[in-house]
Specification:
It contains 14 helices and twelve strands. By secondary structure, the chain is α/β, with parallel strands linked by helices. It folds into two domains: 1-33 and 183-342 and 367-417, 3-Layer(aba) Sandwich (Rossmann fold); 36-178, Leucine Dehydrogenase, chain A, domain 1 (Rossmann fold). The strands form two sheets. A seven-stranded mixed sheet has the order 9-8-7-6-10-11-12. Strands 1-2-4-3-5 form a five-stranded mixed sheet. Strand 3, helix 3 and strand 4 form a beta-alpha-beta unit. It starts with 5 loop residues before the first helix and ends in a 5-residue tail after the last helix. Helices cover 46% and strands 17% of the residues. The protein has helices spanning 6-20, 25-32, 80-96, 117-131, 150-164, 185-203, 220-233, 255-264, 280-284, 323-331, 339-342, 345-359, 365-390, 394-412; strands spanning 36-45, 51-62, 68-75, 102-109, 140-144, 212-216, 236-242, 245-248, 276-278, 290-293, 312-314, 335-337. The radius of gyration is 20 Å and the shape is globular. The structure holds NADPH dihydro-nicotinamide-adenine-dinucleotide phosphate and 2-oxoglutaric acid (AKG). Residues 144-147, 189, 216-222, 241-244, 267-268, 280, 294-296, 316-318, 343, 346 line the site of NADPH dihydro-nicotinamide-adenine-dinucleotide phosphate (NDP). 2-oxoglutaric acid (AKG) binds next to strand 3 and helix 12. Residues 182-414 form the Glutamate/phenylalanine/leucine/valine/L-tryptophan dehydrogenase C-terminal domain.
Length: 417
């Protein structure tokens, strides 16, 4: 299979929307370029006394509407192009939900499961110090993404705070609540997925309680999405997976039980007793009402798109469907809630966390959830209305809403006519 360049794919989506909305080509040009790209190669002392050099990146795609915002990922396949694509999507994500940020993203090419806790801490602190030249609570605010978590955010916050000599809560989001994290941030991306799934169910005239759902990826996003959709919408989660493979039960899985099993089983769902084992490939092509890819990018490509049978796809992950595969899904009439709308719940609660940190005043979880639901519902409705207005698909409509906001800010700030 030809190598997929994630940034090129992201630009293809953008160009499609720019054409539909007849965006000024000069503006399109500036909006397609990342503002800053920083690559750092940095040494980390390993437990055996040796020193290894790691490579990481931080990209700020656009800062017209506010500071750059976006997570940091640890994964062996991290590249600059991947981080550029993820930063690009963050710009549209923040704009589509109307929070005052631009887009940023970071990543380190590393398999964290191969590091001891000490090595992971040293790598995290050194990487954060290396990118400190471009980050700041009013410049660029990192957060968790794949394989990073609240502990790593604590090390980031502590490293920055040590370097400047006082505690800076607003430098990073996704922190534990004891050091300025927000109630509801761990569940936030999954909760946002739950809200747009409910909206999609209503929009498509499906019945929430009889709807069958398959979720690929059982980490932060996938596990909370599965739990909240089952608990709050009453839908049947019939299949789940992680990198080790999938599990399937046509009567519906008990998500709390699967989470408990995973937590006692080295973090994997493989071997869960009350279900049949399936592969990740089989999960993606199950005959379900709703498919939620919530693992990594490029899950649905030209290789498997013709086998996809879901009626609705809610993209929990960033970039799970390639542009070519999407055209086929759209021809088949499959309704897709695009990534930067579907998974915007995380950055929305990160925004709440940042605001709380700047004010040193913290909200109750009920207030966080209420504000999140309102923003996600409003964003879904804006995108559906735009889809009808332009007679287009949901992703293109989401780009149109978001591009319009960033273009307006860019024009107001000058330079462009
Ligand atoms: N965390 C957040 O707030 C947000 C995350 N996202 C996006 O959501 C996606 C998931 O992120 P998140 O949940 O945070 O990451 P996590 O690291 O918490 O979880 C990732 C999950 O995906 C699984 N996985 C990895 N590779 C594969 C594969 N090839 N096939 C099946 N499953 C796989 C992992 O399995 P295993 O554990 O076995 O490796 C794990 O269950 C990413 O695209 C991320 O960018 C988007 C918005 C916000
Ligand atoms: O919470 C955040 O700031 C960003 C999370 C993220 O990286 C994403 O939405 O892809």
């Amino acid at each position: 299979m030809a190598e997929i360049n994630l940034f090129e794919n992201a630009l293809k989506q953008f160009r499609k929307a720019a054409k539909v909305m007849e965006l000024d080509p000069c503006l399109a040009d500036v909006l397609m370029h990342p503002k800053r790209e920083l690559t750092v190669n940095f040494p980390v002392r390993m437990d055996d006394g040796s020193v290894k050099v790691f490579t990481g990146h931080r990209v700020q795609h656009n800062i017209a509407r506010g500071p750059a915002k976006g997570g940091i990922r640890y994964h062996p396949s991290v590249t600059l192009d991947e981080v550029k694509a993820l930063a690009f999507w963050m710009t549209w994500k923040c704009a589509v939900v109307g929070i005052p940020y631009g887009g940023g993203k970071g990543g380190v090419a590393v398999d964290p499961s191969k590091l001891s806790t000490g090595e992971l801490e040293r790598l995290s602190r050194r990487f954060f110090s290396e990118i400190q030249v471009i980050i700041g609570e009013d410049k660029d605010i990192p957060a968790p993404d794949v394989n990073t978590n609240a502990q790593i955010m604590s090390w980031f916050m502590d490293t920055y705070s040590m370097n400047v000599g006082h505690s800076v809560l607003g430098i990073v989001t996704g922190k534990p609540m004891d050091i300025g994290g927000s109630a509801g941030r761990p569940e936030a991306t999954g909760r946002g997925v739950r809200v747009v799934t409910e909206e999609a169910i209503n929009y498509k005239g499906l019945d929430a309680e009889s709807a069958t759902i398959a979720v690929q990826g059982f980490g932060n996003v996938g596990s909370y999405a599965a739990k909240l959709i089952k608990d709050e919408l009453g839908s049947k989660i019939v299949a789940l997976s992680d990198v080790s493979g999938g599990i399937y039960n046509p009567d519906g899985l008990d998500i709390d039980d699967v989470i408990a099993y995973r937590d006692q089983n080295n973090g994997v769902v493989k071997g869960y007793p009350n279900a049949k084992a399936i592969t990740n490939e089989e999960l993606l092509t199950l005959d379900v009402d709703i498919l939620i890819p919530a693992a990594l990018e490029n899950a649905i490509t030209m290789e498997n798109v013709n086998d996809v049978r879901a009626k609705v796809i809610v993209e929990g992950a960033n970039g799970p469907v390639t542009p070519e595969a999407e055209e086929i899904l759209l021809e088949k009439g499959i309704f897709i809630v695009p990534d930067f709308l579907a998974n915007a719940g995380g950055v929305t609660v990160s925004y709440f966390e940042w605001v709380q940190g700047l004010q040193w005043y913290f909200w109750d979880i009920e207030d966080v959830r209420k504000a999140l639901h309102k923003i996600m519902r409003q964003a879904f409705s804006n995108v559906v209305n735009t889809m009808h207005k332009y007679n287009t698909d949901m992703r293109t409509a989401a780009y149109i809403v978001a591009i319009d906001r960033v273009a307006t800010a860019t024009k107001l700030r000058g330079i462009y006519p």
